[in-house]
Amino acid sequence: MSKSSGQPPPKAFDAMGFATRAVRAGTERSQFGEHSEAMYLTSSFVFDDAEQAARRFQNQEPGPVYSRFTNPSVQMFEERLASLEGAEDCVATATGMSAILAVCLGLLKAGDEIVTTGSLFGATIQLFDNFIKKFGVGVRYVSLTDPSAWKAAITPQTRLFYLETPSNPLTEIADLEAIGTIAREAGVITVVDNCLCTPALQEPLRYPIDLVLHSATKYIDGQGRVLGGAVAGPTHLVHEVRQVVRTCGPSLSPFNAWVLHKSLETLQIRMRAHSESALVLARWLSSQPAVARVFYPGLASHPQHDLAMRQQSAGGAIISFELKGDSPEVMKQRAFALVNAVKVFSRTGNLGDTRSIITHPGSTTHGRISEEARQRAGISQGLIRLAVGLEDVADLQRDLEQGI
Ligand SMILES: Cc1ncc(COP(=O)(O)O)c(C=O)c1O
């Protein structure tokens, strides 16, 4: 895009601090010199003449063509997120799921294998098992927390390692250094879903990790308004994913891109506030007689607390905990009673909002996967997931207290 005078080049802020990049990187001004970025709600762009149209279509001249693959609002979001993730390049997608699909379509062919883990968002498991396998790609599941299992699962066909850390909902932590090193030695591409931490708390590309993936719907928006996704990493890999977006069309809308671009400006302060409140609630939940176990990486009792605190600057917003009960039926009954009793927490399946959310994963986000896959993911009927928002933490604690 052409820039107004005084506009810094796209990578000018990359050496600066996170907060500076969050508000300054990826800004393109039009000839009007607007301070807040404009929103480019248009499906196509006009050309000065036929020659320019031909050059733009053949990638011989930079500049927007058609919003499925070149929209300035989308490009601004991509540039800002790339800068925050420390990535060379980034491509935005309509949703987090379409980011995962675009990675698979762009990087895999029939006969290849993915090594992944049961500790994944439920729809990601469904995408792999119900769709990706149909096209002759093998999927192997190993323990997220055991790097030696990832190594043992490699075959000559392995092309991709796919993981989330912390995992949703149990907040298990993957050792990015160990798993990334194993992948690099085997020539395998590693993809990390950084949805729960965001680059404000964790930068996977500082490790031997190739691609970072996002459901921008979650903390990048952080206010429960729009859907979006993104894949960031080296240009040669992002290029393959971008080709899928360009041709197959799971493109981010300019409106959503503008919202997400603005949201990145407050990402760091939001993630710090979410994490502070979540730690208070996780500690309090640990002391409750009705609670069997609390899963939160910021707690010293978390089995991978040290690893989490090396990789993450804080614990994040997601806490899961298991209610006591003698049988799955009793546990489910108690979990449902708590979900029904809260007055401040919202009963909704999303996460990544200013408003705190309570979810029963076993019957919602992980309700459609098989019982075997649910057990592999460690989702019991007594499990409750909290996505801690930005309300006063004392109000949240009181709300849970009267429900428990
Ligand atoms: C960890 C994780 N990855 C990916 C997704 C999918 O994102 P979207 O809903 O934007 O398609 C989700 C959605 O909840 C998620 O929690």
Task: Please provide a written account of the structure.
The protein is α/β, with parallel strands linked by helices and 404 residues long. It is globular, with a radius of gyration of 22 Å. 38% of the residues lie in helices and 14% in strands. The longest helix has 20 residues, at 267-286. It folds into 2 domains: 67-265, Type I PLP-dependent aspartate aminotransferase-like (Major domain) (Aspartate Aminotransferase, domain 2); 267-403, Alpha-Beta Complex (Aspartate Aminotransferase, domain 1). The structure holds pyridoxal-5'-phosphate. Residues 95-97, 121, 164, 168, 193, 195, 215, 217, 227, 229 line the site of pyridoxal-5'-phosphate.
Structural category is: alpha/beta
| N-to-C series of helices and strands | HHHEHEHEHEHEHEEHHHEHEHEEHEH
Mean pLDDT, to the nearest integer, reads 95
Apparent shape: globular
CATH architecture of the largest domain: 3-Layer(aba) Sandwich
The helix content is 25-40%
| End-to-end C-alpha gap | 55 Å
With strands numbered from the N-terminus, the spatial order across the biggest sheet is: 1-7-6-5-4-2-3
What brief labels describe this structure?
404 residues; alpha/beta; Aspartate Aminotransferase, domain 2; 2 domains; 7-stranded mixed beta sheet; binds pyridoxal-5'-phosphate
Give a short summary of the structure:
The chain has 15 helices and twelve strands.
